[in-house]
Amino acid sequence: MKQYFDAKAASLNSHDVLLPLVEMAMQRGINNNKLLKGSKLFYTDLQSPHKKVSFEQLNTVINNAILLLPSDGLSFLLGQHWLFNQVSYSGQALLNSKHLMQMSRVIQVKQFALCPFVFFTPYRSHSHTHYVVNFAIALPQPKVTQFYFEMIAAKINALCKWRFNFTQKICIKFPFSPPQHLEQYYAHLGVQYQFDHPCFCISIPNETLTVPQATTTPVMQQYYLQQARTAPNTIGFIQYLCELLIKDPKIGCEEVAQHLRVSPATLKRKLKQHNTTLQTLKDALQKQHAVINIGERGYSNEQTADHLQFSDVTNFRRTFKRWTGMTPTQLRNIMT
Amino acid sequence: MPHSFIKLHTTLLTTLLLMLCFTLFIVYQLGTLKPLQEIDWIDCIGEGGITVMTLIWLLATLVMRPKGLVTNLLFFGLSALHISLLLDFLDEFFIFSHHYSWLSSLEAFPAVIGMGIMSVAMYYWSHEQHVLNHLLTKKERFYRTHGLHDFITGLYRADYMKRQIEQELCGLSQSSQCFCVALFDIKGFAHFNLQHGSLRANNLLFDIGQIITLNLRNTDLACRFASDRFIVLLPKTNHLEATYITEQVAKMVAQHTPYDLNQTITGFSQLHCHCVEATNTDTLTTLLFQLNEGLAQQKRALVA
């Protein structure tokens, strides 16, 4: 089994997101002490080449940035910055992949180097592939969650504009209502987007997944991947649990604790620190499965209930309403 | 910030320190310490409090203001007031023999002079404010709120514009005063950003913001919308007039030549622009949507 790291572990490279964020905020007249307040980080430390920070510290700084620079679109700028500054072997392997399909595999294999904060699960329907994105380390506050999702949307948007010509065909579904700073979405996103979806999901037409990427040398991809073999590859705490839950959806608290080699009480405390419970994670996984089956794959309630091993359809409908705030029929209506 | 303010006002801060030392020295030389039981501690707390507060105001003034006449006047006025209050405070701890009783009677005089100087400072400050207001004519309308200010362009942010458009929409439904909103987008800004870096790109945004405001009428308002987009409100203007004005603005921006640090030309900057006139059925959301949709269509047409 893979190694995992939690929200308090200083394992993230500060040069990926934190340092560019601090620099951008400083260019906007923000004092770096105010921005780093509460994170126990100092500006001079961040500049050292091997400085690692924890997910919790990063979230504190993002939260400060949202308060100090409301509706400034920093999340979008950070996403673009990230894409154009990929110098690691993993990043080069990504940018030299043949097409989107191969890119998604590179991200899965080199997840720690490319996107340690989130992991995605692909679901294929007859016309599209839907990549449902979930947090890998801990569940941040709603505002910070929105910031991360905007950043990911900006990365995908910038990638499609740079390397492909089907930006318009990709649809990003955000799990929140249209925000106050909608103008940032207008100005930054060329992809299509929707709000108020039950999960954060990126839908890509199947035929575009194998459209070749412009200006790449696919031969080099293998070389870069080999070079990147020595890079550490661990996964976040939540993702670790989710992988256990996907393998065995009926797994209980004690078995999970055994896997992690901790007591059930420690596991519960740890889950609380990460802003979640085992039941929340189980529900979230089942919910996204149900949402994709009903909203995207056109399954009936009976098929989905059967698929998720519900004893009867009424029970499934009731649970679906609890998860998403709407009935399966309402979701179908929204999606059409 | 504190470092730069000490550097900026070294002379004034030295003067303040000398004045305070001189006051303390005079009082110490001419007075004798009161016995502890005679000191009225409650009075000390009150008078000490106002002395400290005036010192804080004095330092805050220096932190906030650049060098200049108004700053000097404010400084000397507040310093005189502070010295008066300091003398009053020290009075609680020292007794002066009848030879030097003039010191206690004169203690209020610096305050009177200081307040006089501060009144003059206020007069010049109002002039200064007038000049600043004039500079802000096309950047703000009716009210000032620093919280909605965009640091990079020096204009207000989209939130400020949204409030203004909502007011105009109210005016449109009540007295059918037509108005237009225009959106500008810098052509190839992402490319410029990649080629010249974000600092140069931020400078370009500032420059273009200035050019847009320069080429508007006094009644118009320009704000930064998001990223490389600017939004302009043209009150009491029909679509024809507004199109003319926005095209004029785009022409002026196209003539702008940005230079980089080595004084070499970094390419020219052109604008996409789209302008819509508000109708009675519009809401803020639909109006902004129309504007952005129009601009997106225009850009798509160019690519195709």
TrEMBL record, chain A:
List where the protein spans the membrane. Answer: none
UniProt GO cellular component terms:
cytosol
The molecular function terms of the Gene Ontology recorded here are: DNA-binding transcription factor activity; transcription cis-regulatory region binding
Keyword field:
DNA-binding, Transcription, Transcription regulation
Q: Which SMART domains match?
A: HTH_ARAC
**Coiled coil: is it a keyword of this entry?**
no
HTH araC/xylS-type domain residues: 235-334
Q: Which InterPro entries match?
A: AraC-type_N, Homeodomain-like_sf, HTH_AraC
PANTHER family on file: HTH-TYPE TRANSCRIPTIONAL REGULATOR GADX, HTH-TYPE TRANSCRIPTIONAL REGULATOR VQSM
Name listed for the protein in its UniProt record: HTH araC/xylS-type domain-containing protein
- Record the organism: Pseudoalteromonas citrea
From TrEMBL, chain B:
Q: What is this protein called?
A: diguanylate cyclase
Which residues does the UniProt record annotate as the domain GGDEF? 177-304
> What InterPro entries does UniProt report for this protein, alphabetically?
Diguanylate_Cyclase (IPR050469), GGDEF_dom (IPR000160), Nucleotide_cyclase (IPR029787), Rev_trsase/Diguanyl_cyclase (IPR043128)
- UniProt keyword list: Membrane, Transmembrane, Transmembrane helix
> Could you say which EC number(s) this protein's record lists?
2.7.7.65
**Which GO molecular function annotation, any one, does this entry have?**
diguanylate cyclase activity
Keyword Transmembrane (UniProt): yes
Example GO BP: negative regulation of bacterial-type flagellum-dependent cell motility
Classification via NCBIfam families:
GGDEF (TIGR00254)
